[in-house]
């Protein structure tokens, strides 16, 4: 029988599974995009080299695909998408419209910022929404995410691997952050996005998206909200209650229904993950979320 490290990148007993299977990830993903936008060069790289301003939700789904493959995919799937992402980044540049100076999109400083903004958002939103992780488990999650950072070209030892290291990183990088025109536009897009073609049938319910976008915005760190100043402040307890309600509601959705929000390729990858784990003796009758229960893992 194949070892678990030959089946999925991260094992079901990892802290990563607990965080990445939590539906609060949708809030964390949008929060991460809002946070990433505060780095002027990183934001310029996205703005100048992607269709983000036309399809921000599409970028979120592509990010979900990458994160999914780094968690539930086979080592071969993770290596393949890592090569693809590095190849794309290698050819891209961000140009300062005032000075004309250019920087590589795969500059380690920029890659590190994007990684930290993303994984810290996943972790903080899930915990604030009620996912019961101890400090040790939270540290373990960030340590595990060092592996995913290597797939985009970073060295694991250069990536924060604990909550204390992540806090120190944000404290050091904050002086270089600012709200550019592109960053302000990004937040507006994320508060009222354009739905991709395959989800246009949901357009009638689009007004219901604004409370979701606002929840993502209010889950940002206080210093980031103060920089943006887009929405008036609300009591922190109200935001926490909103995150808990969102998490409770969406965690209750059946896995097949929830997975419709992903791209077809992502859904196929998740099916493959369930099949491989089932063949290895895991009880997948309750889907991937059920595998976070130790009783549904094979005896070793």
TrEMBL record:
MF (Gene Ontology): oxidoreductase activity
Signal peptide (UniProt feature, chain positions): none
Xref: InterPro entries: MPAB/Lcp_cat_dom
Pfam families linked to this entry: MPAB_Lcp_cat
Domain ER-bound oxygenase mpaB/mpaB'/Rubber oxygenase catalytic: 17-232
PANTHER family registered for this protein in UniProt: BLR2777 PROTEIN (PTHR36151), ER-BOUND OXYGENASE MPAB_MPAB'_RUBBER OXYGENASE CATALYTIC DOMAIN-CONTAINING PROTEIN (PTHR36151:SF3)
Name this protein carries in UniProt: DUF2236 domain-containing protein
Organism: Nonomuraea montanisoli
Lineage: Bacteria, Bacillati, Actinomycetota, Actinomycetes, Streptosporangiales
């Amino acid at each position: 029988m194949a070892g678990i490290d030959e089946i999925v990148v991260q094992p079901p007993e990892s802290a990563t599974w607990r965080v990445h299977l939590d539906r609060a990830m949708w809030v964390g993903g949008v929060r991460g995009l809002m946070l990433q936008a505060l780095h002027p060069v990183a934001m310029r790289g996205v703005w100048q080299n992607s269709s983000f301003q036309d399809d921000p939700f599409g970028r979120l789904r592509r990010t979900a695909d990458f994160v999914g493959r780094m968690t539930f995919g086979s080592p071969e799937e993770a290596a393949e998408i890592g090569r693809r992402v590095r190849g794309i980044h290698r050819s891209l540049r961000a140009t300062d419209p005032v000075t004309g100076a250019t920087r590589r999109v795969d500059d380690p400083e920029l890659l590190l910022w994007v990684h930290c903004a993303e994984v810290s958002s996943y972790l903080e939103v899930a915990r604030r929404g009620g996912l019961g992780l101890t400090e040790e488990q939270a540290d373990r999650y960030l340590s595990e995410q060092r592996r995913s950072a290597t797939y985009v070209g970073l060295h694991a030892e250069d990536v924060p691997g604990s909550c204390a290291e992540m806090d120190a990183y944000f404290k050091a990088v904050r002086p270089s952050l600012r709200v550019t025109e592109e960053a302000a536009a990004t937040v507006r897009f994320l508060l009222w996005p354009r739905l991709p073609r395959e989800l246009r049938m949901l357009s009638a319910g689009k007004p219901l998206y604004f409370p979701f976008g606002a929840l993502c915005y209010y889950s940002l760190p206080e210093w980031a909200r103060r920089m943006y100043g887009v929405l008036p402040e609300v009591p922190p307890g109200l935001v926490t209650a909103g995150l808990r309600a969102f998490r409770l509601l969406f965690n209750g959705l059946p896995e097949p229904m929830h997975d419709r929000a992903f791209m077809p390729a992502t859904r196929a990858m998740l099916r493959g993950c369930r099949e491989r784990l089932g063949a290895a003796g895991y009880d997948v009758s309750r889907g991937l979320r059920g595998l976070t229960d130790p009783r549904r893992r094979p005896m070793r």
